[in-house]
Amino acid sequence: MQRAKFLDKLKSGYLRKWWLVILVSLVLLAFGAVVAVFFSSWVQFFIGHEIVLRDGSRTFKWWQQPPVKPVIKIYIYNVTNADEFLIDGAKPIVQELGPYVYRQEWEKVNVSFHDNMTVTFQQRKVFYFDAEASAGDEEDMVVVPNIPMLSATSQSKHAARFLRLAMASIMDILKIKPFVEVSVSQLLWGYEDPLLKLAKDVVSKDHKLPYEEFGLFYGKNGTSNDIMTIFTGKGDITRYGLVDRWNGKTHLPHWKSDSCNRLNGSDGSIFPPNITPNTTLYVWDKDMCRLLPLKFQKEVVTNGDVLGYRFSPADNVFGDPEHNSENECFCPNGPPCAPNGLFNVSACQYDSPVMLSFPHFYNADPALLNMVDGISPPEKEKHQLFIDVQPQMGTTLRATARVQINLAVSQVMDIKQVATFPDIVFPILWFEDVISGLPSEVTDLLHLATNAPGVAKSALSYGLFIIGGVLLVISVFCLIRNSNRQETLTLESSTHYVNKPANPRPPRNLIPPFPTNGTTKKEPIDVLNPGFVADGNDMS
Fold it and tell me: Where is the sequence biased in composition, kind Pro residues (predicted)?
């Protein structure tokens, strides 16, 4: 019965306001829990919505015309003892010249969006020689292996003998030698080669090379002929920035398996968001002729105090099948395959025996470095390729792509120009394509976008928990306190009425009390009050 009375008191209008406060506090606590659990997901959804490539958006403008200042630094291996190597079989000696520095401007042109959430474009890159930052001039003369000639002799190695003899005669007539002396500008951007000129006149149209001059960067200064199609991220943010097609193809035709022929990597400028240290990033570059996998290395702080993740290739990314079994599919004509630390790109370089490596044969077989003199031992800080990425948004913050171009030369009988050549890998040059950082207008936005959500989440969730908790404690305390006080008052009142002794009010005395006159003897009323004495005569 006491409990029923207590519940009745709790339901009273006097205490009903505290029930409302309790309800509000519980709602605040529940909302705080929801914020703590789901706030990060809301932020990820918002970021995914904002970074999608849409015509006219800020992200699209930065993607189309990157607000960066790319610089490429080129180092050339000048052969200083070419005659001794050819005549006496001396060990080649090279002198590393450079850097020859070029500033770049990047832009994506002929952009068109498609209904399948993709966008197609062509890449335009313009190079400007920076004489002040360079250690030499574009007109510096260098001696390097004759790549067109040595490529032709390599391809004829297994041809009929009369073809090899005919090639040797043609080279004699044209005075073609295994080494050429050209300017830095010619080596990079192109020079007229007699073999290419001859091939233009005698080779059928279907087998002609797509260029008339030879240069290691020939055709790269300007708008590329290649047509790229990538995903905008709309509908599926996990494919944001990944290649869908290259020149209409979804796979390359060169390698043994679809996994090695696939193209679905990034061009290195943007990646799908929400990157973790366990993520493997894939970069696609047509000159590398494959996807390059990048693994997490460490956390870094870039311009504007923006936190980034550094990704680099694994040490065995160019390993032979013995050191990296996943590379077995990149050896279509082997074994033998390319030496450990080299990647054979001849399949997509018109069968030229071009091998890629990292500068100074970093992470490659030490025997390659010992084939020539004049190259210092590799150093990780100077020769490693890396990309720094903002993990939440997938934006590239900083990057340095370092690659070395080599030529694999072998002895070919019946061609006297190379009959004495040993099997050797000649380093030609190496370069580093550098993006040192993003401008402040971008880093400020990245800093805000990556740090503000965490602060907002903590402030909002903790604020809701504290306010809700305080209100709940106060309301429960006041509710119990007021209820106990009312219960106490009720119990005291009930006890008062139950335990009070019966003491009825005496009846009102209409007749004054009898005077005692100092005696306790009761006198007759007629003696005490003669007025009340009856007339005896009358009564009689």
Answer: 503-515
- Output the six-digit token pair for 85: 């190597």
Contacts of 188 (CB under 8 A, 6+ apart): 74, 100, 215, 216, 217
Taking each helix axis from N to C end, the angle separating 13-51 and 2-10, rounded to the nearest 10 degrees, works out to: 60
Cα separation values, 273 from 48, 61, 177, Å? 7, 18, 52
Give CA–CA dist 100/365, Å, rounded: 28
Residue pair 292/358 in contact by the 8 Å Cβ criterion:
no
Q: Is the dihedral of CA 323, 328, 332, 333 positive or negative?
A: positive
| 33-42, 45-54, 159-168 — most confident range | 159-168
Amino acid (one-letter) located at 336: P
- Is pLDDT at 82 greater than 80 in this prediction? yes
Q: What residue type is assigned to position 379 of the chain? A: E
**Could you tell me which residue, 513 or 88, shows the higher pLDDT?**
88
Provide the mean pLDDT of the chain.
Answer: 82
pLDDT digits (tens, 9 = 90+) for 369-386: 999 999 999 999 999 999
Position 205 pLDDT exceeds 70 = no
Cβ(485)–Cβ(14) below 8 Å: no
pLDDT at 350: 81
Residue type, 58: R
445-476 per-residue burial string, b: 16 or more CB within 10 A, e: under 16: bbbebbeebeeebeeebeebbeebeebbeebe
pTM over 0.85: no
State the virtual CA torsion across 291, 292, 298, 303 in degrees, nearest 10: -80
DSSP 8-state class, residue 239: G
Peptide bond into 99 cis (omega under 30): yes
- Looking at the DSSP bridge assignments, the partners of residue 465 are none
pLDDT at position 18 is: 65
Q: For 69-125, where are the alpha helices, taking DSSP H only?
A: 82-88
How many CB atoms neighbour CB 278 within 10 A? 7
- Judge contact between 98 and 133, C-beta under 8 A: no
Angle 147-155/161-173 helices, nearest 10 degrees?
A: 160
pLDDT winner (highest mean) among 38-47, 80-89, 481-490: 80-89
Quick one: DSSP state of residue 89? -
Q: Phi, psi (5° rounding) for residue 299? A: -85, 145
10: pLDDT strictly greater than 80: no
Helix, strand, coil % in the chain, rounded to nearest 5: 40, 25, 35
Task: Express each pLDDT in 22-34 by its tens digit.
Answer: 777 777 667 667 6
Mean pLDDT of 297-309: 92
pLDDT at 508 over 70: no
**Cβ-contact 199, 208 below 8 angstroms:** yes
DSSP H or E segment with residue 164: helix 161-173
Angle between helical axes of 2-10 and 440-499 (0-180°, round to 10): 140
